[in-house]
Amino acid sequence: MADRxxxxxxxxxxxxxxxxxxxxxxxxxxxxxxRFDDVRDRELAGLVAASLAYGNVRQILKSVDKTLxxxxxxxxxxxxxTPAKTLLSDFSSFKHRFTTGAEMAALLNNAAAAxxxxxxxxxCALEHHAQGGGGRGAALRGLAAELRPGAPTLIPDxxxxxxxxxxxxxxxxxxxxxNVDPGGWDGLPPSALLVPLDTHMHxxxxxxxxxxxxxxxxxxxxxxxxxxxxYAPEDPVKYDFCLTRFGINDAFDKDALAGCFKR
Length: 263
Fold this sequence. Notes:
- By secondary structure, the chain is mainly alpha-helical.
- It has one domain (6-260).
- It has helices spanning 6-19, 39-51, 57-71, 75-81, 84-90, 101-118, 121-131, 138-147, 165-175, 199-207, 218-229, 240-248, 254-260, and strands spanning 95-96, 99-100.
- The chain has a two-stranded antiparallel sheet with strand order 1-2.
- A hairpin with a 2-residue loop joins strand 1 and strand 2.
- Helix 2 (39-51) runs antiparallel to helix 9.
């Protein structure tokens, strides 16, 4: 793990206060979660948005919007009331890169089964968090195992070495609550989250010497999360959104980001 640098703490807090705002969210699938005040709907909308968050951002937003439109005003009611055969019919023409309509139908059917078994996806995650001793990633791996059958392009294998970026993104959205992340899963502590490691965060973390590892895998995600925990132990993914804007948004000056961390 990288050594704690005192001047990094002030720089991270300054970036958080300046950029962790909703005005910097678009274009990001996170924006779809703001439509839903009821956490029971939001957790399902978030699952759809996060699971489709791969590929071109414009196509991501289009696919998420199409899926949520088919689910109506209440995603929770839709998955509870819609039989598996109807799900297949509703998404028969759906396609998002490698993901087929059959996979989306499987994901929503698995979500319905989890909701029926546990009461909500939140309760499902809490159960697996407890079973895993409250460690980082336990809830995520357990929920992934419940949701993955028949939907391998939407839910990566939780036992593989992948960083599980999309699932970690989903957990960040649902567990944290601030100007950007809407939250709702109050039973899970932010300290149990892992950084959603994509190419942008990986590049920035290497630049800041938070990791020296080349592969963007789970081991690297854990290492970067531990490095951030030196600055925000109760909320180690706090700085994810504001830092990744510098990789996602061309209007953000990447050279200026590096300058923020110089003594």
